[in-house]
Amino acid sequence: MSATFATPTSVRRPTARRASTHPAVRLTRRGQIVLVSFALLLMLGVGVALGTGSAATDDPAPSGATETVRVAAGDTLWEIAAERAGGSDVQGVIDEIRSLNAMSTGSLQAGQLLLVPAS
After folding, report:
1. Pick the CATH number of 66-117 from 3.40.30.10, 3.30.420.10, 3.10.350.10, 3.40.50.410
2. What pTM, to 2 d.p., does this model score?
3. Do residues 115 and 97 touch, judged by C-beta distance below 8 A?
4. 68-114 confidence digits (pLDDT tens)
5. Helical residues (DSSP H) of 2-118, grouped into ranges
6. d(C-alpha 46, C-alpha 44), whole Å
7. Helices (H) and strands (E) in the chain, counts
């Protein structure tokens, strides 16, 4: 019988783990909620700051006094303008009413409030 011997050429010795110079950051559940809430509020604040612009237009403000009229059932823009025109150009008054109320069409609904030129 023959015997075989193995001799280790290098011996590994366990080394101690080095302490990290940058410890891992661990957030609790509450910390995570606070961090996410802060980020969402920050984004909301930026959105509001950037989203609120002037609603002003380049169109000059109409001159003259105005009154508010509530549209009754069956009223038309022509009838309302004719009451305000007082013998002058009804179409001009219609154009002014549409301009005052930013109307793209002449359709009205009962109960709608309209700015009209004062008579």
Report:
1. 3.10.350.10
2. 0.46
3. yes
4. 889 999 999 989 888 888 878 889 888 888 988 888 887 888 899 98
5. 29-51, 77-85, 90-100
6. 5
7. 3, 2
